[in-house]
């Protein structure tokens, strides 16, 4: 492989500057769309990346052009060595951010600040405590809600991610938008996506068009402001006139953003996924532990990336259960 080869550019001309690293398969919630009802078979601890291995792999990606790293899980903050992981990764020239369910994030405010983590995505699928318990199988709504307010007060940039499911929380779309009235947060509505064990079907999905129908019925057209999306943005961004915050729709299913995708994913057990929807993985950890370079594996994985959604370039293909049953459950990929 040529020393000057850009191993993070795929055959469709997309440069990958964003790495999402899952730190753990464990979580203190049990969200139905993320974790199968029967639970998951956790990887043995010896199969998971140590903090040194996370750092070494991340360093290789940064050397080849990654400028942004997001830590995910499971719930990344349940990992006991999270302080040292943050410290090690903060030494790299990258923007470091995290996705959390915010149940215990109040204990980590100082550590996050000390390591330059300013952007926090919080998963919250309902503003109703009973619905929250139903979807997460846990009584933690007040803790999460209070911690979102705490993060805003402490000056973090907060995005709230809500997975929409028809007949469950689609009647809360306007409530979520009104949540942005007095708070400088961004609420992002995510289309329900297919993963192993989450009982996905198209009828449960609330599309981008359906979200905007709710919005147009609740607000005057002149008050719905279309915002400029950032380069490589996964979402279409809006705000309501006079509101402090904003809202967005991530339409991975009905209106995918694959043309500008710049993301790669590293699972907690050291497997590289070139797409959230991809059923294939590339083992980086085994080679790293054997003292072998991992660049050629990264290069091969990036070159194999499909143009659209792991090769599922039509809704018909996406609806075939044999295709998405080969993929992991969301909790073992990393949110």
From TrEMBL:
Catalytic activity, reaction form: GTP + AH2 + S-adenosyl-L-methionine = (8S)-3',8-cyclo-7,8-dihydroguanosine 5'-triphosphate + 5'-deoxyadenosine + L-methionine + A + H(+)
Domain Radical SAM core: 11-237
UniProt cofactor(s): [4Fe-4S] cluster
Name of the featured protein: GTP 3',8-cyclase
One Pfam family of this chain: Mob_synth_C
Encoding gene, per UniProt annotation: moaA
Biological process according to GO: Mo-molybdopterin cofactor biosynthetic process
EC number per UniProt: 4.1.99.22
Entry-linked NCBIfam families: moaA
Top enzyme category: lyase
